[in-house]
Structure formats: C-alpha cells, structure tokens
Amino acid sequence: MNDQAIDKKTLRSVFWRSFALQGAFNYERMQNLGYAYAMIPVLRKLYQTEQARAQGLQRHLTFFNTTPAVSPAIMGISAAMEEQNAKDPKNFDTSSINAVKAALMAPVAGIGDSLFWGTLRVIAAGIGISLASQGNVLGPILFMVLYNVPHLLTRYYGLRLGYRFGNEALEKMSASGAMERVMSIANIIGMMVVGGMVATLLSITTTVTFSLEESSVEIQEILDQILPSMLPLAAVMIIFLLIRRKVSVTRITLATLASGILLHALHIL
C-alpha cells in the first residue's frame, strides 16, 4: 500500500466514473460493472499487486443496484473500507465490504428515488414546462439547472462524506471491537431488505379453485392464511437453489418467462 491513503485526486476520479454507473446495466447483477469501474482508481491507489487489485475488483462485481445520484456516498464508504483492508489485511474481513453495500443500497435507493425522481424532477419539470409552454427559451435551461445542481452536489459531497464517515466509523469500531456486531447487523438488515423486496415487489398469485358441493375454495386464500406471499417466496427459493447449482442466469430468466406464460395459459397463475 502507498504511504499516502486515498487522496482527493483519487476521489475525484471515483466521482467522474460514478456517472458511468448505468452504462453497463444488466439484469443479472444490475449496476455491478459500473460500480466496479468507479472503484478502479481506489484499488489502484491502495493495492500494489495485480492479484490484490483483481481480488478487490472481483469484490465489487457482486450485485448492486441503487439510485445513481446517491451511489457515490456508498462508493465513499467502500473506499474507506478498502483502505482499512489495505492497512490491516490480516484483521479485516473483506466480506464486510459487500455486506455494508447490500445493507445500504436499498434504504439509500428509497431516499434517492423519493427525493430525485419523485420530487426534484417533478418540480424542475413543472417549472421548466410552464415557461417553455409560453415560448420562453429559459424553460429547458431552468429545468436542467434546477435538477442538476442539487444532483451534482449530492454526488460530490455524498462521496466525500461517505469516505469520511467510513473512515471515522471504522476507526472507532476497530478500537472498540464492534466491527463483528456491525457486520452481523448489516447482514441481518440486508436479508430483511431482500425479504421485504420479495414480499412487496414480486406478485405471484394462483387462480386455482376447487368446488366442494355448493361452495368453492380458492387456493390463494388458503395460502395467504398459512403464509402471506408464499408463492413469491417459493419462486425466489427455487431461483436461489438454481443459482447455487451454477445454472446460468440467462437460462433461469428464460425459464421463468416461459413458466409464467405457460402457467397463465393453463389458468394456474
């Protein structure tokens, strides 16, 4: 590791690279390629061997997805954790880097989506459109300014604050021995977020009914009484097992689409 830790030049490089977060978006790991691309300056700065840099790059190729405007804040925390790993690799658990990313990306995305997509963009567009509809050329310009000034400031200062917060927090946790507890909490939160996403964003219901004498029984009502969102949970567990068996995500995606169409045609879903 270099004597000098991550400097302003490295953070600026991460800042500019963060704009490419969505450039290689994919349905397997979403923004992972963009995230890894943004972290390259940090890895080059901290690690001197190709092997260490490759391991760092591989760490950041895991699943990642959040609001792009707030992603630099998480990158700053990741940079601080990579720095801590480079300083003390024997006593630092590298899995904690991705555990913290997984725990932060969904809550931060909730704030970022509400703030930028749901509020700021609407307000900026409303003001811009009202001027543009009157033939005022300042309409589109004002829209760009109103939206992008807070956007760029959030990116820039989010990265710096994330890095500073990560460093301060890691030093305190290392001194108090609280790192293991924090990682355990981060893992629990990450699993809760994934569970919440499955229950709220994945909708799978069955239309199968059975007729008993003069009454009919809906299977979905019985399943909901046993465990709400049982079918989405079952679908996720099946996909999880297939991934663990190294089945290609592309094949799983195609099989999921085909299964959905077939089961719907058979009036099962």
Automatic annotation (TrEMBL):
UniProt-listed InterPro entries: GatZ_KbaZ_carbometab, PTS_IID_man
Residues passing through the membrane, by range: 182-205, 225-243
Keyword terms: Membrane, Transmembrane, Transmembrane helix
Keyword Transmembrane listed: yes
PANTHER family the UniProt entry points to: N-ACETYLGALACTOSAMINE PERMEASE II COMPONENT-RELATED, TRANSPORT PROTEIN, PTS SYSTEM
Name of the protein this chain belongs to: PTS system mannose-specific IID component
